[in-house]
Specification:
By secondary structure, the protein is an alpha+beta fold. The protein has 40 helices and 20 strands. The strands form five sheets. Strands 15, 16, 17, 18, 19 and 20 form a six-stranded antiparallel beta sheet that branches.
C-alpha cells in the first residue's frame, strides 16, 4: 500500500546514492558532507527505499549535531520513516528521539523550536508526543511570534488526535487565553482557527466579545472568521441575521481577498435583494480596481452565476460590467459583453448601445493590433441589441457602415449582415441606409462583403433615383470597358505569365469548401484577409474600382452576383422609369458588362477560366434581359425578398423557442405552502432577515429547493462489477462531474467468514488518472462496505476503468482475486449541445485536422428520423434550420455542433441519400482539433446508428 506523503521534494534519479556511502558521510565530521548525506537519505526514503541500518547511525552521529540544516533534515527524515511495527505498536528505538525533540523545544534558537513544533503537527504517535506536552505549552509564551504560531498549531494537532482530549484536556481554554493577549496576526489567526476547529462555541463567544474591533483584525484572521460564519449559518439558519451584519461590516475591509470572500459568503448564505445587490456591487468594484486579468475573469464568472439566479438585480449593474471593456484583454472584453447582452432591457438598451457605439469609434482611432477582433465583438453585440430592440438601430447603423471597408473581413462581414437585417426589419431606415451604402460602396475591398452589399442594392433600391444611383455606382466600380483589349490577347498569353503567378498564388483559391447545407463545393474566391491591389491585367485601365480589381483577380462568383444585381435593377427600372429609351439604354449597358465578363473569363489573360456555375448564372441574366416574362419578373423582384423574410422569421422563432426553454423553471406542487410577505411576523427581525425569509419562501414555492434527481436515471448509472455467484459482490454508482469521476462502490461479503485486507485495486486506460488508491478493509460475514474512488479526467475521450478485488481469508494463506467488469466512461458525459455561426463552423471545419468518416449503416428509412436519432445519440445540436430540412427530396445534409467541458469543439456533417430500395446511404464526417474526440464520437455513432436502440 502507498502511504500519505506530507512533503514534496525534487529528486534527481540520475545517480542513485548507495547506503554505504551515506553511512560513511554521516559518521564523518564534515558538516557539508553530512548535509548532503542526509538529503540523499531523505530522497531515498521519499522514493520508497527502506534503509533500516541507517537509523542507528543517524541517532549516534546526526542527533547531537548543532547545525540547523542538519536538524531540519533530521526532522524530515523522522517524519517519513515508519515509527510503528506491523501490529501498530511504537518501535522501541523511537524513544531515543524524544530527548532530542525535548532539547529542540527548549533550545535557545527560535528557528529550531519552530521547525520542531511544526514536525509535531505531523506526528500521530501519542507515546512520543505525551512527554513533550509541557515543553509545547511553554512555547505558547515564547517571545518570538514564529515559535508561538507553530506552538498553537502543535496544540491543535495534538488535541485533534484520537487520545487528544486525554493528553490536552484544557487546550481550548489555554488557546482562548492566548488569543486574548496575542498581538501577532498569524498567531492570532492560528489560535482562532484552533477554537473554530475544536471548540466552536468559544470561537463564537470571542467573536461577539470583539465584534466592534473586527475591521482591525488582520486579513488572515478575517478569512478564518468568514469560514466560521459560513459553517455556523449552515447549521443554525435562524441565527443568520446577526452574522449578516458582521459580513456587511467586513465588506468594507481594506483587503481585496476579504472583500471577495465576503461577497461570495453573502451570495451563498442569503437570497435577499439587499445582500445580492451588495455582493454584485462588490464584484463590480473589484472588476474596476484589479489589474490582473485572471482576477477579472474569476470575478466575471461570479457575476455570470449571479446573473443566472438573480437577473432582475443584475440588470442595474450592466453599465458597471461594461466598464471592464477598458481592459486590453480580449477574453475579459468578450465575457463582459456576453454577460451584458443577457441583461439588456428596454430601460437600459439606449445607454448600452451608446457606450458600444463609443467603443466602436475608439477602435477606429486607436492603433492596437487586436482592434479588428474587438470591433467584430462590438458589431455582433450591437447586432444582438438591434434585433431585440429594433428602435435603437437608427442610432448605430450609419456609424457601423463606415466599417464596410474594414481590412478585417470578419468584422466587415458582420457589419454588412447587420445592415441587411436592419434594412428589412426597419422600413423607416431603408432610404437612408441605401443612400449611405451607395456612397460608401467603393470602399469595400472584400469579395464576400461586396456580394452581400450588391444583394442589398438589388433588393432595396426601389425609387427611380435609387435605381439609377445603384446602376451608376456599379458601373463606376466596374470601370470602363473593355476589361482587356483583344489586340493584346496574343501578348497577353505571355505577359500575364510573368505578372500573374504571385497574384494567382495569393489571391485565387480552388480548394473545396463546405457550403451552408454541409455539402462540398469548389469555388474560385479572392483571398479576403489582406486586400492588396492585384496586378493589373494588360489592356485594363489604371483607374480601377473595387469590383474591377476583384474581377481581374479571377473572382467570377462575384461577377455572377454583379450580373444578378444589374438584372434586378434594370427590371425594377422598367417599372419606375416611364421613358423606354432610358430603360433600353440601361439594359444595353448591363448586357455589355455581362458579355465582357464572360469574354474575360474565357480569355487566356487570366490563369483560371470562368467556372461553369458563374458562366450559367451570367448567361441566364443575359437571356432574362432579352425576354422577361411576368413569372420570371415576379421571382426576381419579389421571391428573393420573401425568402429572406422567411429566413429572418425562422431565425427569430428559433431564438424565441431557445429563450423560453432556458427560462423554464421547475414548479412545486399546487398545494405546497406559501408564506405571504405582508402576513409574516416581523418581531425581532431586521429588514435583511425579512427579505431573506421571503426569498426562501418564493424559492420554495417555485420549486427551487426541490431536487430534480430522477430515480430511474440514477439507477441507469449503477453498474454491476461482479457476478451474483462470486464470494464478493460489487456494484458501482458512477457520478461524472466535469473533471472528476466518482465511483461509489458497494462491496458485499457473500461468504460466512471474515475477509481480511480486502482491497479494491483499480487501473485506467485513456486520459483518466486515479487520485488515490482505496485502503484495505476487513469485512465481517455477510456485511457490506461503501468504498469511494476518485478519478481525474483530462480530455474528452472514451476511457476504461478496470480492476479487481483482492482479499484474504483466515484459513487460506494465499490472496484471492475477483476480477471486475470493465467500466466504460461515456463521451456523452463530457459534451453538450452548443451553437455557433455558419461562418465559424466553416472556419473550424477548414482548420481542424482530425477527421473521422463513418459510413451510414442503419435500418431507419426516413432521412429526418435518422438525423434526429443521431442528434439524440451524440448529444449535439443541429445548426441547420428546420426549414432547410423540410420536404421529401431523397437526400439530406445537416451540420451538428457540440462543445466539451474542456472547451474542445466537435463538428459533425451528416450527408445521406435515400436509395431506390428505400435504404439510406451516405457518410457522417466528424472533425475536431484533437484525435480523442473524433475517434470516440465516431465509435459512439457506429454503435448507435443502426436503430433506435
Amino acid at each position: 500500500m502507498e502511504k500519505t506523503c506530507t512533503l514534496l521534494v525534487h529528486f534527481d534519479k540520475g545517480t542513485p546514492a548507495l547506503a554505504n556511502e551515506i553511512k560513511e558521510a554521516l559518521e564523518g565530521n564534515d558538516v557539508p558532507a553530512k548535509v548532503e548525506a542526509m538529503r540523499k537519505a531523505v530522497m531515498l526514503s521519499l522514493n520508497g527505499e527502506t534503509i533500516p541500518q541507517l537509523f542507528i547511525t543517524i541517532i549516534r552521529y546526526v542527533l547531537p549535531s548543532e547545525d540547523h540544516t542538519i536538524q531540519k533534515l533530521l526532522l524530515l527524515y523522522m517524519e517519513m520513516i515508519d515509527k510503528t511495527d506491523s501490529q501498530g505498536k511504537l518501535l522501541p528505538e523511537m524513544i531515543l528521539i524524544c530527548q532530542n525533540l525535548r532539547n529542540n523545544l527548549q533550545h535557545a534558537n527560535e528557528y529550531l523550536r519552530g521547525v520542531t513544533l511544526r514536525f509535531l503537527c505531523r506526528l500521530n504517535e501519542s507515546e512520543i508526543i505525551e512527554p513533550l506536552i509541557p515543553s509545547v505549552l511553554s512555547n505558547l509564551e515564547h517571545r518570538h511570534p514564529f515559535v508561538r504560531r507553530n506552538a498553537i498549531l502543535a496544540v491543535m494537532s495534538i488535541y485533534k488526535l484520537p487520545q487528544g482530549e486525554q493528553l490536552l484536556g484544557d487546550a481550548p481554554e489555554t488557546i482562548e487565553k492566548v488569543l486574548s493577549t496575542e498581538q501577532d496576526p498569524s498567531a492570532k489567526r492560528n489560535a482562532f482557527l484552533m477554537l473554530f476547529t475544536c471548540a466552536q462555541e468559544r470561537a463564537i463567544t470571542y467573536l461577539f466579545t470583539n465584534v466592534d474591533r473586527i475591521l482591525d483584525w488582520g486579513e488572515q484572521l478575517q478569512m478564518v472568521l468568514l469560514e466560521l460564519i459560513k459553517k455556523v449559518c449552515r447549521t443554525n439558519k435562524h441565527e443568520k441575521g446577526k452574522y449578516m451584519k458582521i459580513i456587511f461590516s467586513l465588506i468594507d475591509a481594506p483587503s481585496t481577498a476579504v472583500i471577495y470572500e465576503c461577497a461570495g459568503t453573502l451570495v451563498s448564505l442569503s437570497s435577499a435583494p439587499t445582500a445580492i445587490k451588495k455582493a454584485a456591487n462588490t464584484y463590480c468594484n473589484l472588476l474596476q480596481s484589479q489589474s490582473d486579468n485572471n482576477v477579472k475573469l474569476i470575478v466575471l464568472d461570479r457575476l455570470q452565476e449571479l446573473k443566472s439566479s438573480h437577473k432582475e438585480i443584475m440588470v442595474d449593474m450592466i453599465m458597471d460590467i461594461l466598464r471592464a471593456l477598458a481592459s486590453p484583454n480580449p477574453d475579459v472584453k468578450r465575457k463582459s459583453l456576453d454577460i451584458a447582452l443577457e441583461l439588456i432591457t428596454p430601460r437600459n438598451v439606449d445607454e448600452v448601445v451608446l457606450m458600444l457605439k463609443k467603443e466602436v469609434v475608439k477602435t477606429q482611432s486607436a492603433d492596437l493590433e487586436k482592434n479588428g477582433e474587438y470591433r467584430q465583438m462590438l458589431v455582433q453585440a450591437i447586432h444582438t441589441c438591434a434585433m431585440k430592440f429594433p428602435e435603437v438601430a437608427s442610432t448605430v447603423v450609419h456609424v457601423l457602415m463606415d466599417f464596410l471597408g474594414d481590412t478585417n473581413v470578419a468584422s466587415a462581414m458582420d457589419v454588412v449582415v447587420f445592415v441587411r437585417e436592419i434594412i428589412e426589419t426597419n422600413p423607416k431606415l431603408r432610404v437612408s441606409i441605401i443612400t449611405r451604402l451607395l456612397d460608401t460602396f467603393y470602399q469595400i475591398r472584400a469579395a464576400r462583403v461586396c456580394s452581400c452589399a450588391l444583394w442589398i442594392i438589388g433588393e432595396y433600391c426601389l425609387s427611380l433615383s435609387e435605381v439609377e444611383s445603384g446602376i451608376a455606382t456599379i458601373k463606376q466600380c466596374l470601370g470602363d470597358l473593355p476589361f482587356y483589349t483583344p489586340s493584346e490577347e496574343g501578348e497577353g498569353q505571355e505577359a500575364p505569365k510573368a505578372n500573374m503567378p504571385a497574384s494567382a498564388g495569393t489571391v485565387s483559391s480552388r480548394r473545396p469548401v463546405v457550403l451552408a447545407d454541409g455539402t462540398y463545393a469548389t469555388q474560385s474566391a479572392a483571398l479576403e484577409t489582406a486586400m492588396s491591389p492585384p496586378t493589373l491585367v494588360q489592356g485594363s485601365l489604371a483607374s480601377q474600382g473595387n469590383l474591377r480589381s476583384l474581377l481581374l483577380s479571377g473572382d467570377f462568383f462575384l461577377g455572377a452576383v454583379v450580373a444578378c444585381t444589374l438584372t434586378k435593377l434594370v427590371l425594377r427600372l422598367e417599372e419606375v422609369q416611364p421613358s423606354r429609351v432610358e430603360v433600353n439604354k440601361a439594359a444595353t449597358q448591363a448586357l455589355l458588362y455581362m458579355v465582357s465578363m464572360i469574354q474575360l473569363g474565357q480569355s487566356p489573360v487570366l490563369p483560371h477560366p470562368i467556372d461553369n456555375d458563374a458562366y450559367d448564372r451570367i448567361v441566364l441574366c443575359i437571356r432574362l434581359l432579352f425576354n422577361t416574362g411576368n413569372a420570371a419578373r415576379k421571382i426576381w423582384l419579389h421571391s428573393c425578398r420573401e425568402s429572406f423574410v422567411n429566413m429572418l422569421a425562422d431565425k427569430q422563432f428559433r431564438e424565441t423557442v431557445e429563450r423560453k426553454a432556458k427560462a423554464q423553471i421547475s414548479h412545486a406542487q399546487p398545494d405546497d405552502l406559501i408564506d405571504f410577505y405582508h402576513l409574516k411576523s416581523r418581531k425581532g427581525m431586521s429588514q435583511l432577515e425579512l427579505e431573506d425569509e421571503v426569498q426562501d419562501d418564493l424559492k420554495r414555492a417555485t420549486g427551487a429547493f426541490t431536487k430534480d434527481n430522477d430515480d430511474a436515471n440514477k439507477l441507469n448509472r449503477i453498474l454491476q462489477l461482479t457476478g451474483f455467484s462470486d464470494p464478493v459482490y460489487a456494484e458501482a454508482y458512477v457520478t461524472v462531474h466535469h473533471y472528476d469521476i466518482v465511483l461509489d462502490v458497494t462491496v458485499i461479503n457473500r461468504t460466512k467468514e471474515t475477509l481480511q485486507n480486502l482491497c479494491l485495486e483499480l487501473a485506467t486506460m485513456g486520459d483518466l488518472k486515479l487520485v488515490e488508491r482505496p485502503q484495505n478493509y476487513t469485512l465481517a460475514p455477510e456485511s457490506s462496505k461503501q468504498i469511494k474512488a476518485n478519478i481525474k479526467v483530462s480530455s474528452t475521450e472514451t476511457g476504461v476503468i478496470f480492476g479487481n478485488i483482492v482479499y484474504e481469508t483466515s484459513n487460506v494463506l494465499e490472496r484471492n482475486v475477483v476480477v471486475l467488469n470493465d467500466i466504460h466512461i461515456d463521451i456523452m458525459d463530457y459534451i453538450s449541445p452548443a451553437s455557433c455561426t455558419d461562418v465559424a463552423f466553416r472556419t473550424m471545419w477548414a482548420e481542424f485536422e482530425w477527421e473521422n468518416k463513418v459510413a451510414v449503416n442503419t435500418v431507419i428509412q426516413s432521412e429526418k428520423e435518422f438525423l434526429d436519432h443521431i442528434i439524440k445519440s451524440t448529444n449535439m445540436k443541429c445548426l441547420t434550420p428546420p426549414s432547410a430540412l423540410e420536404g421529401e427530396c431523397g437526400f439530406l445534409a445537416a451540420n451538428l455542433y457540440a462543445k466539451s467541458v474542456f472547451g474542445e469543439d466537435a463538428l459533425v456533417n451528416v450527408s445521406i441519400e435515400k436509395q431506390s430500395d428505400g435504404k439510406l446511404s451516405g457518410y457522417i464526417r466528424i472533425r475536431s482539433k484533437t484525435q480523442g474526440i473524433a475517434l470516440s464520437l465516431g465509435d459512439k455513432i457506429t454503435l448507435k446508428q443502426k436503430g433506435a436502440a
